[in-house]
Amino acid sequence: MENSAFLHFLTLLLFKQKSKHIGAVLISVIIIFLLSAVLFLSSSLQHSLLSALHKQGDFTVTRVQAGKPVNTPVEWVDKILDINGVTQVASRIYGRYFFAPREKSFLVVGIDFFDEQNNQALQTLLKDVDLKRFLSKDSMLVGEGVRKFLQAHYFKDDFTFKTPKGTFKKVNIYQTLPRQADLMANDMIIMPIDLAREIFGLGEDEVTDITFNVPNDAEWDNIISKLHLLFYDVRVIEKREVKKAYENLYNYKGGLFLILYLVSIVTFMLILYQRYSMVYSTERKEIGILRAVGWSIKDILKLKFYENLVIVLVSFTLGVVLAYLYVFVWDAPLLSHIFLGGSNLANHVTFIPVVKFGVLGSIFLFYAVPFLAAVLIPAWKIAVTPPKEAML
Predict the structure, then answer these.
(1) Where in the cell is it found (predicted)?
(2) CA angle 168, 173, 178 (to 5 degrees)
(3) Which residues contact 145 (CB under 8 A, 6 or more apart)?
């Protein structure tokens, strides 16, 4: 059979039955769009969080009493630094300040701005900060969500904190943290450690926790054992535990979309059933006529394969492109709130494009193979029957 005649007939077939094909394409695009959007969103969030976590200390140490975290003595810093294999030990103040009138909270992080470990973790956030000017008076850096909240409540240039001692502390709003850090820093306030210590009512010899690094991964378990021998009331949090928690969190939230996946599969099965039924009704006579005029079984299967391959490729491409635009250009409205949550300050994150082509390839195969099989198998059953019987 000549290729030009085959392509001409294939084109005519696609345009002649365009209403049927458009319906299949629309439903397929919805299925692929939902799956791809969840995939893109989950991958982007995990990538951003794990990238930020990579710059944090390998271990975080806090003191516990009666199973609850309490203030940690600053003197622990020197004791931890004496352990062989430990580097970049840093203390910090880390806690939530509740704004009671509106039942909202800010994550306050107090750090030593000249500490090497803290500067490494916050170098992206602090790259445009003039430390000399910043430290000249009581100042703080605020996340985008904090800035909008404070401005909405008439705190444009400064905010007054209420300390546990009943006094008030006015702090200047120096600068807003970069928008690209909103995922981690949207409700965050960064300030000097002494200022945070005053706001939370801690003593001069107290911090909330201590972070440090252990460059040799093989020593991690040994370091943990030494810490428990050195301090009887210590809790040690490993970075790999936090990493696993992040992964489980977004894998769990992705699992919430299992119901959407099931709905998609049911819809997909309806498409397959529709295609199966059409072959036995409207297209049965068409295949019989083609066999009668000399088309071979191979030619008919080839025609049906390419006809539906065009539908598969168009549907998959449109679904993936729309999902990419929805997540990485339009910032995934509605869907992002499910992953980010909205119980505290509203967060508007700009997602970093992360595409896992292996998973997209799997989606394509699981979509394309059943779709093509649902058409080719019935077409083959008709093609092998005598033309006269097929046209009845």
Answers:
(1) Cell membrane
(2) 140
(3) 182, 186, 187, 344, 345, 346, 347
Residue extents of the structural domains in the chain: 3-51+250-390, 59-213
Sign of the Cα pseudo-torsion (225, 231, 232, 233, in order):
negative
Q: Note the pLDDT tens digit of each residue in 346-356.
A: 777 888 888 88
Average pLDDT over residues 130-154: 90
Whole-prediction pTM: 0.80
Task: Give me the amino acid identity at 198.
Answer: E
- C-alpha to C-alpha distance for 375 and 20, rounded to whole angstroms: 14
Q: Is 25 left (phi over 0), alpha (psi -120 to 50) or beta?
A: alpha
| HEC string for 199-262 | HHCCCCCEECEEEEECCCHHHHHHHHHHHHHHCCCEEEEEHHHHHHHHHHHHHHHHHCCHHHHH
Rounded to a whole number of angstroms, the CA Rg of the chain reads 31
